[in-house]
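FIELD: query
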Amino acid sequence: MASTMDNIKLDIKNPAIAKQFSEIIGTVKGCNIIKPDDTLKPDLQIFEINGNPEEFNQIQSLLSTGKLHEIFLTSEKTDPEILMQAIRSGVKEFFPQPINRSDVEQALKRFKDRRALAAPVTQQKSGKLISVVGSKGGVGTTTISVNLAVTLAEQEKDQSVAILDMNTLFGEIPLFLEISPKYHWGEITKNIERLDETFLMNVLSRHSSGVHVLPSPGYLNGHQAPTPKTMERLLTVMKHMFDFVVIDCGPSTDETALKTIQMSDEVLLVSVLSLPCLANANKLLRSFIDLGYLSKERIKVVLNRYINKSEITLKDAKKGIGHDMFWIIPNDYATTMSAINNGKPLSIIAPKSKIVKSFRDMAEIMFPKDKAAPKKKWGFFNQ
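FIELD: result
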């Protein structure tokens, strides 16, 4: 994925020279200086050397790993032997000291031109945003979000899928997938000016299913909460990176959640067969439509944990919500709890179960693999 921002790391001992490079790089559009302890991988590293052979061994070693695109050097010494060693090591640019500002600016321009030519030409994606919203807490938005994301990733090998956890305090997606992410979306909110595809890919964690995960902080740590503007920028970048982005909104309806819902292509409104949940689902549905956040067609009511002989019938539920049931997920407590406790998707725990088939059928109805108009499946929607 091509990036609009090139990360540059300075390894310069002379503070005055380091400051000069920083000032010059700061004026070049599309260049970002990363701190020495930053976990982001640099695209370009600028070293200050004194001509020690070990320095060139280090440079060759770095370039041979492929972790760096290019290395620039600067030195007080300009002996011909040093320049020849620099060339043999694969160094692209050499700056004698004192530094000439124009030379550095032109070298950075050449670097960016080389990066642009080397970047693979790929068609920018226009992915689908799918928000999963709970009519109240505890209705299973995380279970649905995680298993829908994994199902979409399994549907086609070349489909790219991400899942975003907007449960600010009680985000549990890493537990459902048994991963230990190093970062969460708090990294985005405090570095929003650096947000591009490369930065985001460094923050995301990848599950074995192929799903990329952007978890919430999961605890009160003084992080800056995402704003509607932050969310708009983040989701715009993610749409261009992934075929599908599933967002676990939980029961939240704050301004940021409403912005997420407004931007979504599909909104799954999750309820269970209980009077409080159905009443809340009705209120949310009317609010989304009346306030102009969504059209009725973009809202899909999903009934979770359905038990066949419930006191409340599907007909009663449809009447109470005032909307057709798009999908009904059967109740399978044992399988679902086993999946959660083992930190694995349902398709790994019980690939032939009815609940896994339900997720696969739902994904196929929402986003058909052959793009043909899907056939109606009796008993699963429009009941």
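FIELD: remark
The longest strand covers residues 299-306.
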